[in-house]
């Protein structure tokens, strides 16, 4: 890509953000070297690495990237037989420790091998050398200090040095404590000069203390003398220190030799760690800007869904939906100043560059990006005082260069095409340039203020109008991009809103060409129609929700009636059986008694017979009362019915149709198949009213066209749980109406709070049959697939 294009589209700022996400200097260097690619396989691999890093960061947290150094020079010294310093060895030790931690982090589980294959392919190159790492840790304490535990010989030497040191100090302390010597001393202290223990003697008494002079003060008033009594001890101390230095050098050479043996492996580790740091920097940047992996193609078409400019704060930026290369190859964007036209151009260009560099882009799932061989951008005013170039000349110089280098596989971005000169000539030049690019099949986005270009886009194939919406009521842009609608000049409306008299506005309109006024009126009518359509669509959605709510309520009521009916029938049957059983036993007993009385018939038994008859009548009455009580417990008995209503006859558990209205006692006639029967309201349960059903059918049919176009996925990232639940409930209602069997909810990974909350909601949702995390290529645990009932 041209450096000028990268600069104009602010790609270096993205790279700086990426570099800040890296942990090591080597990783930051790889970030700064990242450039957009044109090989689609290389781009796919880069995007795949970013996706894996993002998934691992969400699943396991931040990567344990410890210190990482450029060790090429140190390894070269070791391999040619040199001796490494303690500092260099510590850097190697830190790098070995980091290598071991990163390898465990990436390849620590079997599932990680399958889930993150690209990262594992790099991690497998890392080798652990824990023995060398531990040996260096044991021997070296800091950049300047070797541990006593580095070798037994070093420990012996240092103990000897401590012993000699104590003997020398004891001897000197006895000298400076002596009354005869104190009068010659400048201060009663022991100090060191040239690695020898000495005492400070006044210059006039230097001959009174026998020994070797090693130094004198700046003014010459003090001589530092090593008394003869400690000369031999100091000599022994010096010999021990020479031995110590030799042993330290031996230890360093031994460690350097161990490093040299694994030098090539250390270099490989460093390169792999640098690459991993770079990849995880891409993952961190993706999470920071809520990015996604776009789909790729080489057909020079793109479709950006809810694309956001990554350099504008996510709480301020307005998402844009923009597409090109399908039904049209040129998009002409019009609208007021500060309305977002230039931001739209930069968003398209920058997101394309980021995708071709293997970076995730801030957009919604379903976004598709094309791989362009070159992107050309003429954006902003780059007039040069030194070169005496005006704004128009500067733009034209860029355009001439673009036209000389452009190919059919290029993307061209023009801001205010033809501006900076006479409007008529500028518009003519702009149309000529767009014609040329259109004939070459070059994908082009351009912004303009010229009305002529709006008309040009309407009458020519392959070119489409677009505009950025402007709210005349608030005198501010909404930053919403509207493809298919040319922008309208709002000068008169804004002036009127700001207080300019209608008389002046009407007078000004007389200077505007009639065709221009008519064209602006057409645009205004289109905009008015669009808003009406949106309002009607919103009203239709509200009505559909109302119908769905009514449908759900009716279904729940029907289910409740059915459940209660079944329960009531079971209870009634059980009670009736029990009543009949008792009645039968009672009747058998009475019949048996009557037979006995008949055998021994006499006049005195008449009273007993009457008593038995009364007992039998009471038993029959009890059975009848029990059946009536069962009917009385029917809480779903309808209060009123209409001809044609559908009901359940509880006594026979059959559906029937009302063919006569109930009388004062609640008795009526129903049709059960071919049979008519008389029943009471208490023995019925209402299924549905004929008139209500007709209304529901009409409303459902009115919205079949809307529900038929429902998509199979919805994106709720960026919403809190309450808002996401509200959006998803509406969506699942629509999906149920449209008879969809399977849908995908995109909620992102983030902290996992939104995913957990939605899963809890899905468990009790009436439309959800089952749900599970999406497949890896469908978003993994950043999305949920739902199977509808």
Automatic annotation (TrEMBL):
Instruction: Spell out the family assignment given in the record's similarity comment.
Output: Belongs to the DNA mismatch repair MutS family. MutS2 subfamily.
Instruction: Give the taxonomic lineage as stored in the record.
Output: Bacteria, Bacillati, Bacillota, Clostridia, Eubacteriales
> What gene name does this entry carry?
mutS2
Name the species this protein comes from. Fusibacter ferrireducens
EC number(s): the record gives 3.1.-.-, 3.6.4.-
HAMAP family per record: MutS2 (MF_00092)
Q: What class of enzyme is it?
A: hydrolase
Alphabetized InterPro entries for the sequence: DNA_mismatch_repair_MutS_C, DNA_mismatch_repair_MutS_core, DNA_mismatch_repair_MutS_sf, MSSS, MutS, MutS2, P-loop_NTPase, Smr_dom
Q: What is this protein called?
A: Endonuclease MutS2
Task: Locate the residues binding ATP.
Answer: 335-342
